[in-house]
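in:
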């Protein structure tokens, strides 16, 4: 797979979509949606209370409005009462139903257009939609009751484990919380070598190369924030894909996981900088399947080798514990309420693991001279390798120009 069959420049959607059931637009609204609502209305009714109606329209004019009420969701023909109206073709609607595209992904890949209202109106419906379609519950403060250790006591979400820690305890923590912090996996000499390799790769990386992300700081300088496929310039960082300590720990999630050494951006490094004013240097709450592809990409483990101290001043990873087991609202910083926010503080040589579909974030560093670097290696199931070819990522859309010619991975106008 991976051939661009329709000239979209997106080498995955059409080929992968053929592997999933097709959902006819009218039949879904008249038959499938009522059946799903009858089974799962209690999962969504409270979440959708007071949410304005959402409508979908296909090119031949057929239109259905989703209306929320005490009995869940019902669909009616037309769009007269819809606050948000989305226009898309039937194939895209089917891919949305199959979780191959999110609302954001549909719009970002220009496969859907919001003709009334805004994207936020569509995204507000998305958790309930996914709950109806998949049976996964919506993430709320009720998650606290599930964050327990093997004895049933509340999980210490700030706990870290030694490199030789009990594997069953680490596995349980990772499965339950969606992340884990393991101390001292790599020694100072190894970290110094990895850091030198990163700096060499950074010296070889230029804006607009299509394999790196850039931001702009308050001085107007472009700074690199992410470099993909590090093996282009460093065999040391490429061979880390098969490093046995990381491999063994990542496979606590599933012994069948394979390292994504040649796809899904391969080995990569994140670099945090202070005073970023434009670009993707600081990422709000998101999941790695944020434009779509949940059944293709997930479950997926991100293994992070920490090269520098991670703390508020230097930049750090934040996660919403347990959210990988749910469907999630798209949150802004400060909107977390009673949800279990965990700020992970690490030292050089530590290893972090987190699921790609946990809600996670990298807020702006508070210090004036941040420079935290973290290497990341992905581990996924065989199905991901079957669907996503070498050299490709489900998120390839991030590097495709929009109608104005802008490429999303670069912050400057060009």
């Amino acid at each position: 797979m991976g051939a661009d069959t329709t000239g979209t420049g997106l080498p995955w959607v059409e080929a992968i979509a053929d592997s999933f059931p097709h959902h006819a637009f009218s039949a879904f609204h008249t038959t499938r949606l009522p059946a799903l609502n009858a089974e799962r209305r209690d999962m969504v009714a409270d979440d959708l209370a007071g949410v304005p109606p959402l409508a979908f329209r296909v090119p031949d004019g057929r239109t259905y409005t989703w209306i929320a009420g005490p009995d869940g969701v019902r669909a009616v023909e037309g769009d007269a009462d819809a606050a948000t109206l989305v226009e898309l073709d039937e194939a895209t609607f089917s891919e949305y139903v199959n979780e191959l595209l999110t609302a954001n992904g549909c719009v970002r890949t220009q496969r859907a257009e919001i003709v009334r209202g805004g994207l936020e109106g569509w995204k507000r419906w998305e958790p309930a939609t996914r709950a109806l379609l998949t049976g996964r519950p919506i993430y709320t403060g009720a998650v606290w009751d599930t964050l327990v250790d093997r004895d049933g006591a509340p999980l210490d979400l700030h706990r870290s484990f030694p490199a030789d820690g009990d594997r069953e305890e680490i596995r349980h923590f990772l499965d339950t919380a969606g992340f884990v912090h393991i101390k001292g996996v790599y020694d100072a000499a190894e970290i110094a070598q990895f850091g030198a390799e990163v700096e060499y790769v950074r010296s070889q990386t230029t804006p607009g190369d299509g394999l790196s992300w850039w931001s702009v700081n308050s001085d107007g300088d472009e700074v690199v924030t992410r470099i993909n496929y590090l093996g282009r310039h460093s065999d040391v960082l490429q061979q880390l894909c098969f490093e046995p300590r990381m491999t063994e720990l990542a496979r606590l999630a599933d012994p069948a996981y394979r390292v994504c050494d040649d796809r899904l951006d391969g080995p990569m490094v994140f670099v945090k900088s202070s005073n970023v004013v434009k670009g993707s240097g600081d990422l709000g709450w998101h999941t790695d399947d944020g434009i779509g592809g949940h059944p293709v990409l997930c479950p997926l483990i991100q293994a992070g080798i920490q090269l520098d101290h991670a703390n508020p001043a230097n930049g750090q990873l934040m996660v919403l514990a347990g959210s990988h087991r749910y469907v999630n609202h798209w949150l802004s910083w400060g909107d977390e309420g009673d949800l279990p926010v965990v700020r992970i503080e690490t030292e050089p040589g530590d290893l972090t693991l987190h699921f790609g579909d946990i809600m996670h974030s990298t807020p702006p560093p508070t210090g004036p001279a941040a420079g935290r670097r973290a290497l990341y290696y992905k581990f996924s199931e065989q199905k991901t390798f079957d669907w996503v070819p070498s050299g490709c990522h489900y998120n390839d859309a991030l590097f495709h120009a929009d109608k104005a010619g802008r490429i999303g991975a670069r912050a400057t106008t060009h």
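note: The chain is about 25% helix and 20% strand.
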